[in-house]
Automatic annotation (TrEMBL):
Transmembrane segments: none
PROSITE patterns noted in UniProt: ABC_TRANSPORTER_2
Domain of life: Bacteria
GO terms for MF: ATP binding; ATP hydrolysis activity
Protein name: ABC transporter ATP-binding protein
Pfam families assigned: ABC_tran
ABC transporter domain segment(s): 5-219
Assigned keywords, A-Z: ATP-binding, Nucleotide-binding, Transport
CDD domains (UniProt xref): ABC_DR_subfamily_A (cd03230)
InterPro entries listed in its UniProt record: AAA+_ATPase, ABC_transporter-like_ATP-bd, ABC_Transporter_VariousFunc, P-loop_NTPase
Length: 282
């Protein structure tokens, strides 16, 4: 596996303190990686460092190929028309696929003479995404592209993104608060919590490696299991465990879903699931 993005020992400090501390992660080429974490976890700081907008105080970022960035606030000029926006994109970017951009917007029914401010939030997100894709990047970085969009528009944007990725093999790193939006489209997960990388890995492998156990509260965690989260209600105990072989038939065993897995890690900031960087070709 070749890594499209490798971050090693990254630390970034803002005025008030450290936003990222010793973060290491890797995203293999051609993957769609979800970056999730609570408010203030450091997601935007990480994305800004990956795209070169911020200089780290320690550590390194290595990207294979060009990076295109779609920022949280969709930096489009309100008074520009679509045609002017595309001309602007062409002038700013030496590698610019104008035919693709015009074609994609025509397919979406967004006419060239319309002004950005006349478009809906979903349409503006589609324009911003088109501009990012027309740069033909190796790595596409999206900071909360779905914020403020209704569920239908979120679905449309994600589907559009997936189509492009499938066709061109672009690697994507996308931050979001809403894990449910990422479930069907992402195949790599990075969980950031309190400025540290808590989880980084292939989503299917992570799900296969974790189990949700429930049973009477006298049961002890299976030998060798890493307990990520434990909760007790009445006489029942519920565990999310990693790397467990469950032999005791009194446990009710099922696979955790992505939401449960992410929430369990976020509620247990000391737990982590990190591969060695060599496993992802870094
Ligand atoms: N320009 C800045 N100056 C000072 N502190 C900052 C700056 N930008 C971010 N921070 C701080 O760094 C930390 C990480 O912020 P960041 O915006 O990266 O988190 P985030 O995970 O993107 O949050 P959110 O989900 O709320 O967008 C926070 O404590 C934040 O207050």
């Amino acid at each position: 596996m070749t890594a499209a993005l490798t971050v090693t020992g990254l630390s970034v400090r803002h005025r008030r303190g450290w936003a990222l501390r010793d973060c290491s992660l890797s995203v293999p080429a051609g993957r769609v990686a979800a970056l999730v974490g609570p408010n203030g976890a450091g997601k935007t700081t990480l994305l800004h460092t990956v795209t070169g907008l911020l200089t780290p105080h320690g550590g390194t970022v290595t990207v294979a190929g060009d990076v295109a960035f779609m920022a949280q606030d969709k930096p489009l000029y309100d008074t520009f028309t679509i045609a002017e926006t595309l001309t602007f994109g062409r002038r700013l970017n030496p590698r610019w696929d104008g035919a693709y951009a015009a074609g994609r917007l025509a397919e979406l029914g967004i006419e060239p003479e319309r002004k950005i401010k006349e478009l809906s939030g979903g349409q503006q997100a589609q324009v911003a995404l088109t501009l990012a894709l027309a740069r033909r990047p190796g790595l596409l970085v999206l900071d909360e592209p779905l914020a403020n969009l209704d569920p239908l528009a979120r679905h449309d944007v994600m589907r559009a993104l997936m189509g492009e990725v499938a066709e061109r093999g672009t690697t994507v790193l996308i931050s979001s608060h809403v894990v449910a939006d990422l479930h069907d489209t992402c195949d790599w997960l990075v969980v950031l919590n309190g400025g540290r990388v808590q989880v980084s890995g292939d989503i299917d492998d992570l799900l296969a490696g974790h189990l949700m156990l429930s049973g009477p509260d006298e049961l002890r965690p299976p030998a060798g299991a890493q307990v990520i989260e434990e909760s007790r209600t009445g006489r029942q105990v519920r565990l999310l465990v990693r790397g467990a072989q469950v032999l005791d038939p009194r446990w009710n065993v099922r696979q955790a879903d992505l939401d449960e897995l992410v929430l369990a890690y976020l509620r247990s900031p000391e737990a982590s699931a990190l591969p060695r960087l060599s496993e992802v070709g870094a």
